[in-house]
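ugh ok fine here u go
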Amino acid sequence: MKICVLNGSPKGKESITLQYVRFLELANPGHTFTTENIGQHIAAIEAKEEEFKKVIASIESADAVLFATPVYYMLVPAQFKRFIELLFSHNAGSAFTGKYAASLTTSIHFFDHTANEYLHAVAEDLGMRWTGSFMAKMDDLLIEKHQENLIRFGQDFLDTAQRHPAIRRTYPPIISNPAEYRSAGVPMPLDCGGKEVVILTDAAPGSNLEKMTTRLASCFGKSASLVPIDEAKMNGGCLGCCRCAYDNTCVYTDGFSEFWKEDVLPADIIILAGTVKDRYLSAAFKQVFDRSFFMGHVPAFPGKQVAFLIEGPVAQCSTLQEIMRAYPSLQGANLAGVVSDEAGISMAIDEQIDALAARCLRLSMSGYVAPGGFPAVAGHKIFRDDIWGEMRPFFRADHAYYKKHGLYDFPQNDLRQRISTAFLSFILSFSKAQEGAKKEMKQRMLQPFEKVLADSPVLKRQKKEG
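structure:
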């Protein structure tokens, strides 16, 4: 069989992901693997019709397709995202229809599931039959057990493509019937109390999104800055070179770093206003997220309010919803809300926009940031462990920040807790102590909370102020 490998890495043949593909190729000499370096050559593929057609011809001649890509900011790189947009805008789905597909990603296991789920959904939208994903940690290929597992994945992918079984579709097709949004007028601006608001947008002229951002900006009056993504003047997407790891200096000198630090980060409230394109935001928005990686793994928006203003069927895009919920908390911020034009009724959208503006201000004034939950906690632990470990010699800026701000919060460092746990473990090794502990478990768990409810200085202060 002929396998067409769509390589999403901007590093092309020098991609770590492609080494996994090369291993599969060596393990399956009876099959032909043809690699198209999409991420590296996206400029030519987009600008020259003959280059795009060459890639499509390679896909058409293949028996199966393997999406191989690193994970950048919870998804595929912006360059690969742009290629996927081109597939739909050029109506190239017929080259994929009926073929079997799989994905292979490399990362540090930070939101690699959303990248693979996105590829899965896109493949199904292209009429493909999905066989599965292989989510590797970047250096897994150096370990024999992972090599064996990769071979099993490859065998399953190839066997499935040869057998042509029926496969149930996981993601229903998106049904979109957009109605034109017309704002009822200009609302009275809220008292922003000195809070600064930035609305970062890629709205097309005359679009629902443009009208929605105009109304939202009006809610904040002179406190809001409406900033088109084009003003970032990016010369390209993140190259994955990691040169920024040492001192947060990007290899690009196009001014994006200054744009991000001067026009976006100082705001108290950050609104991300985008349009749904193939189950995510635009490639231009993805490029902003990717390029912001020059700041490394440091939370970008600590203590701020973040909201999303979306044109398109976001309710039907489960992966996008998950990313929108997680992104603010991973940046140390609070998700103030999401508003879209899906309601189709202009008055209802006006009310939602006005309520979002008021909530952003109210939460910003109070300083509320919701506890991050699993995505933020798990993400922090992945970054903490990897930066302290093998990434520390290279990501020096991250290491310095984590050390300074106490983010190396390893539980093993709490000596008092370690001694207490060891002592309690010793006591509970005796059967009589175990019996007593079982009887008193619920009461002992509640004891510290009873003290807080009785003697909390915060409650006393709240009562006094109220």
